[in-house]
Write a structure and sequence with these properties.
eleven-stranded mixed sheet; 16 strands; about 35% helix; globular; binds threonylcarbamoyladenylate; binds magnesium ion
């Protein structure tokens, strides 16, 4: 890639990155979900530069990353018992908890809301960086706004290049979809975004999760924007391995169409440009964003993404949510 700010992970590069954060700069770093674009959450100017660099709307708040429970509690004005239960059970891990914000959290981080989203990521590089910087780290996914989230340092470099102080290369992300976001600032816990921690696992701890109130103000402002989308149109097909291939053949040209689907569907479309999402929802999650980027870069005019009607448990819910947001049309 053109940019020369990608660094392998060593004690030195982490220490240097932590200095960049403390000095108000931007650092892209790996987490277990996707790469994040970090800045000191207490530094207003640094936080504003995240929004500029990503081209992100100012009303879409950021997740603040910590590496201890006490740091998480200090970001909130009220740390409810539900937050404590979730944090003790699932942190470090792919869960973001929304709580009432402490007054000293810059409004820019919160997108003007009175809540703040907090997460302790389960990744040795992210944890070491946050500890070395000794500040809470505000970090959205490290993509240009609207693009698929980056799961490799190379994807960050393609999107943001030299606009970032340093990109720490920790290899591909394990989970591949962003954290699950749960709001516990109200009476009942609300699932704001399905993600890398299965809804079922959370419900075992806190009981059933509510959906955001329909028609009400956007509880998670990010969810109202088009997201995860490559530059070519994406059509989403809901169906299974037997009926989908003929449907795709009837509606598209193999020479200019990319297909993102499970192994069985891909095997039935050998004349298409394909990305194999594998045979489990975990595999699909880990290949989803890199697959969208790969097909986008391959020069096809249309991407057809296939997701079965029944794969909505576990990480399947997050994969389907991302595909629905990336798609501009639904077939079948
Ligand atoms: O896995 C992840 O969550 C990654 C890694 C880097 O940690 N981060 C990430 O950040 O996905 P981002 O900015 O791409 O998505 C954050 C989501 C958005 O939908 C945003 O609207 C929501 O969290 N959010 C942040 N603060 C919020 C708040 N106070 N209330 C409601 N939703 C909030
Ligand atoms: Mg994002």
């Amino acid at each position: 890639m053109g940019a020369d700010n990608v660094r392998p992970v060593t004690e030195d590069t982490i220490r240097n990155a932590s200095r960049i954060l403390r000095a108000g700069g931007l650092v892209a770093f790996p987490t277990e979900t996707v790469y994040g674009l970090g800045a000191n959450a207490r530094d207003r100017e640094a936080v504003l530069s995240i929004f500029r660099t990503k081209g992100r709307p100012a009303d879409n708040p950021l997740i603040v990353h910590v590496a201890s429970l006490s740091a998480a509690r200090s970001l909130s004005s009220r740390w409810p018992a539900l937050a404590e239960r979730l944090a003790r059970r699932f942190w470090p891990g792919p869960l973001t908890i929304v709580v009432e914000a402490a007054e000293d959290i810059p409004a820019e981080v919160r997108g003007g809301l009175d809540t703040v989203a907090v997460r302790w990521p389960a990744h040795p590089v992210a944890e070491a960086l946050i500890q070395a910087a000794d500040v809470p780290v505000a970090a959205p996914s490290a993509n240009r706004s609207g693009r698929p989230s980056p799961t490799t340092a190379e994807a960050v470099s393609i999107d943001l290049g030299d606009a970032v102080g340093v990109i720490l290369d920790g290899g591909p992300c394990d989970i591949g979809v962003e954290s699950t976001v749960v709001d516990v600032s109200g009476l009942r816990p609300v699932l704001l975004r399905p993600g890398g921690l299965a809804r079922e696992a959370i419900e075992e701890v806190v009981g059933s999760l509510e959906a955001p109130a329909p028609g009400g103000p956007a509880r998670s402002p990010g969810m109202k924007y088009r997201h995860y989308a490559p530059s070519v149109p994406v059509a989403l097909v809901r169906g299974d391995a037997s009926d989908v291939p003929p449907l795709i053949r009837a509606r598209s040209d193999p020479a200019s169409t990319g297909v993102l689907a499970c192994t069985q569907v891909v095997a039935a479309l050998p004349d298409y440009v394909t990305v194999d999402l594998g045979s489990t929802v975990e595999m699909a999650a880990s290949r989803l964003f890199s697959g969208l980027r790969q097909l986008d870069a391959s020069g096809v005019a249309l991407i057809v993404a296939v997701w079965s009607k029944t794969d909505t448990g576990g990480l399947g819910l997050a994969v389907l949510n991302r595909l629905e947001k990336a798609a501009s049309e639904v077939w079948g």
